[in-house]
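Quick one before lunch.
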Amino acid sequence: MIDLHTWDTSNGRKIAILLEETAQPHRVIPVDLSKGQQHDARFRALNPYAKIPAIVDHEPLHDDSGQPLTLFESGAIMLYLCEKTGQLLPAQPRARFECLPWLMFGLASAGPVLAELHHYNRHAKALSPYGVTRGASEADKVYKVLDERLGTSEYLCGDAYSVADIAVYPWIARHDWQEIDLRRYPNVLRWYETISARAAVQRGMNAARIA
Ligand SMILES: N[C@@H](CCC(=O)N[C@@H](CS)C(=O)NCC(=O)O)C(=O)O
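Model of the glutathione complex:
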């Protein structure tokens, strides 16, 4: 059993989707960010950075210590779940390293760029015109890269749906917060609609809401 400490945000949804896709037994433990629960000592014992998501795996991979394994940082959690389940990340080294740049693009580029734009658009529009303009132009670069890739490839890592798609999808699902019209990026729109139709994705997207 895996405990997922999370809230209804893009970083949290990535892990909820991956748990659903890999059919890992788990329970969702809400950390209400609007009440500041990420700063509670109980949660900070799981993640010293005080941000969701974090997991506690009570039956960890390759571990005979008998101790639960705690993980924070969504990227580390995603790699762990792929390794534990043997799913959604190619095992063959060349295919794996062709896929990892797209996973890292989702974790280190698309996510942070779009998260910043959420903040500027929703909380600082009047205060920071520079932030809004810069955020929108960086977001456009992210969408253009995705659109180009998805124009030649069905999914981010090629023919197969993978963890890289899961790392990016929840950010694209908030295109309205980014004031992005997906019709400007038709390949992203096609990919977005395909992934939105997956039952595991729908469950993961709503996991913290129904917890
Ligand atoms: N690099 C971290 C980022 C996590 C993150 O930014 N989480 C946000 C929600 S999406 C959060 O907990 N924010 C609360 C806060 O900053 O106080 C990861 O990938 O896990």
